[in-house]
Amino acid sequence: MNKRLTLKQRNAIVGLTFILPWLIGFLIYYVGSLFLTIQFSLSKVIIGKTGGYTTSFIGISNFKNALLVDPNFNQILVNSIIDILIDIPFIIFFSLFIAILLNQKFKGRAFVRAIFFLPILLTAGAVQSSLQLATQHIMGGASAMMKELTPSSGVNVNYFLGIFQELGLPSVLVDYVTSLVSRIFDIVRASSVQIIIFIAALQSIPNSLYESAKIEGATSYEIFWKITFPMVTPLILANVVYTVVDSFVNSNVVELAFNEAFTNYNYGLSAAMSILSTVAILLILGLITLFISRRTFYYN
């Protein structure tokens, strides 16, 4: 007699089917590269003149060189982590704010949503290179114009920063806002996927919850903090993890490791840098996940 699968078992099979393509790719392509990176980090890699390479085991010398000898790795790693931690709150709340706006009913909503999705397409190699080149030309022209206008107008960014500090705003807050403004284009471009995820989360909230809250006389402020925000907290965790990983992939420390391998041809040191930075990011991810998961609300 055949035993029928339970609902939990059927759901497990469906979930495994969804992740099976990723799992196959992970086992075929990523696992081998991971072990090769570990091997390179513990070895001195010598590239042959006619192709191929040879390795000789040197222990943790590459890790020592990265942490104690290389003049740039520690500073770039710390700066990259600080930039990631600075960007996370703003990207998450900006994405949630835009998602709430785009979830409203108004004319041209599909077009506006497409505009916020465009940065994903614009990060393609050729398009991104063209945009960077155009941005350099625009910034060059803007800098020349600012040099001409500044003496006559007397506009000075430091002047406005001084006003904010005189108003009693903490210097840490002023520096935080200044850092965000200086990277506003990168932050908006990095928020596209998060906006889409938040829109999906908002559309999954039952309308009956909002109707019941309005009948009880709840204000929009109370509805947001008592219904909307708790219901999207599981996706906040997912977006934070995605933001950390995405920011890390595009950080300066990854570029440093890449240049060390393919410019200086020091594959062992590059592998050690990659492992150290990855471990640091995994620790940060673990702490953030532990903190947010304890405050996440799951609606059944």
List the helices and strands and how they pair.
Blueprint: H1 7-41, E1 43-47, E2 53-57, H2 61-69, H3 73-102, H4 109-122, H5 125-153, H6 157-166, H7 171-182, H8 184-189, H9 192-203, H10 207-215, H11 220-249, H12 252-262, H13 267-293
Short descriptors:
single chain, 300 residues, mainly alpha, two-stranded antiparallel ribbon, 2 strands, 78% helix, UgpAE/MalFG_permease, sugar transport, transmembrane, transmembrane helix
The N- and C-terminal alpha carbons lie at a distance of: 34 Å
| Secondary-structure element series | HEEHHHHHHHHHHHH
How is the largest sheet built, in terms of strand order? 1-2
Structural class, by secondary structure, is: mainly alpha
The total count of strands amounts to 2
Number of helical stretches of at least 4 residues: 13
Biggest beta sheet summary: 2 strands, antiparallel
Q: What's the pLDDT, averaged over the residues?
A: 80
| Envelope shape | globular
Rg, Å, rounded:
25 Å
User: What is the multimeric organization of the chains shown?
Assistant: single chain
Percent helix among the residues?
over 70%
> What low-confidence regions span 5 or more consecutive residues with pLDDT below 50?
148-155
Taken as a percent bin, the fraction of beta residues is under 5%
Membrane topology: Multi-pass membrane protein
Keywords: Cell membrane, Membrane, Sugar transport, Transmembrane, Transmembrane helix, Transport
Transmembrane segments: 12-32, 76-102, 114-135, 180-202, 223-245, 265-292
InterPro entries: MetI-like, MetI-like_sf, UgpAE/MalFG_permease
